[in-house]
Amino acid sequence: MSGIESVKHIVAVASGKGGVGKSTTSVNLAAALAQRGVKTGLLDADIYGPSQQLMLGLPEGTRPEVRMVNEQQWFVPVEALGLAAMSMAFLVTESTPMVWRGPMASGALQQMLLQTDWGDLDVLIIDMPPGTGDIQLTLSQKVPVAGAIIVTTPQDIALLDAVKGIEMFTKVNIPVLGIVENMAVHICSECGHTDHLFGSGGGEKIAARYDTRLLGSLPLNRSIRENTDAGRPAVTVDPDSAVAATYLKLADGLMQVLGERESPVKQFPDIKVTND
How large is the C-alpha radius of gyration of the chain? Predict the structure, then answer.
């Protein structure tokens, strides 16, 4: 028995490098899906640096309920913002460093993923650690992942790392569902002037190169950082804002892609043979 038996779609949110807003994208995407009425779970798979407890506004010391079923231990996901959530942060203290080698981290991921009673979920969002290491390989080998979303910024060095992430998922036969571009443009709060501080058009170029789509492009906006750090993702604290609208559009785009993959368009008509 596995905890993901009743999960319809598992989606990895990944990045080639840290600091591009992957976890912020994960929590806002999950919250946006929940707001759309999609039964959503959020797994913080960044074993060494979990952040979703903070972003979900959960206090330190939050722990999942543990059940015993047929002599097997099961975690019950923590409920927050309409999401079923699980994170290494729920199992250790904030000051506990995870001084683990790769196999230990991979084992922890499998336990949180497969021994959590996720229940009937439409989508399970997995906030991946940055890079292309053990956690990514473990996920691809042990779990039927529907696809990955790659988060990047327009900066050239970030785009290079994003390409490595895409190539990695391609090699392990996980489709890239789309690209999310963070910090795409800065809008001056005083005069409204826009400036592409980190370059422009990078997300679109990568999406075109790998035959995928740009699911969303987010501005460099102080409120995104402040609200997420305060445990109040933009989608929940200000649902009528332009930023929330972008995340909701991202959620709609993801569900559209998943729907297309679930029910592919027939390429040929049905042929019927009759005796006339």
Answer: 19
Q: Do 83 and 41 form a contact (C-beta atoms < 8 A)?
A: yes
Higher pLDDT: 190 or 177? It is: 177
Rounded Cα distance between 74 and 68, Å, is: 6
Q: What are phi and psi of 64, to 5 degrees?
A: -75, 150
pLDDT tens per residue across span 49-87: 899 999 999 998 899 999 888 778 899 999 999 999 999
Is 119 inside any structural domain?
Answer: yes
Where does 151-190 have alpha helices with state H?
156-171
3-state secondary structure of 205: helix
Note the pLDDT tens digit of each residue in 232-271: 998 999 889 989 999 999 999 999 999 987 644 333 334 3
Domain range for 81 is 7-262
Write the CATH number for 243: 3.40.50.300
SS3 content of the chain, % helix, strand, coil (to 5): 35, 20, 40
Strand partners, 216: 180
Tokens 């709609």 sit on residue: 252
Has residue 151 been placed in a domain? yes
Neighbours of 137 (CB within 10 A): 15
Burial of 254 (0-12, 13-18, 19+ CB in 10 A): buried
Count: domains in the chain: 1
- What is the reported pLDDT for 213? 93
Task: State the pLDDT at residue 266.
Answer: 36
Is 112 domain-assigned? yes
* Residue 268 belongs to some domain of the structure: no
